[in-house]
Amino acid sequence: MSLGIDRWGGAQALQKVALVRHVGGLLRPGLRAGHVEAELVKMPGFAKDLNASRAEAKKLLAAAGHANLNFTLTTAT
Question: In a 3-state reduction of DSSP, which class is residue 72?
C-alpha cells in the first residue's frame, strides 16, 4: 500500500495549507539520524517515479492474491 502513495506530490500540495515542507521517513530530513533525499528515494514507497512504484505495488498485490483490491481511504480534514 505504501508504494501507491505520492509522498512528493502530497508534500508539495500540503505545504500550501500545513506545516509539511519535506518528505521524510521516520525522521524529518535535516536531523542527524534523518535520511538525505538521495538515500530516501531508494526506500520502498519514497521513489519519485510514482508510476513505477504503483506498478510494483500491483505486482506485489497480485502475488499476494489481491490483484483487484479496492479500498477507500478516509482521513480527518
Answer: coil
* Stated pTM of the model: 0.65
Return per-residue pLDDT of the chain as tens, 77 residues. Answer: 788 888 888 888 888 887 777 776 666 666 676 777 888 888 888 899 999 999 999 999 999 999 988 888 787 76
Amino acid letter for position 72: T
Rounded Cα distance between 62 and 4, Å, is 14
For 1-66, give the DSSP string.
-GGG--HHHHHHHHTTTSS-----SSS-TTSTTSPPHHHHTTSTT--S-HHHHHHHHHHHHHHTT-
Angle at 54 between CA 48 and CA 55, to 5 degrees: 115
Please name which of 77, 73, 64, 76 lies closest in space to residue 6, comparing C-alpha atoms.
73
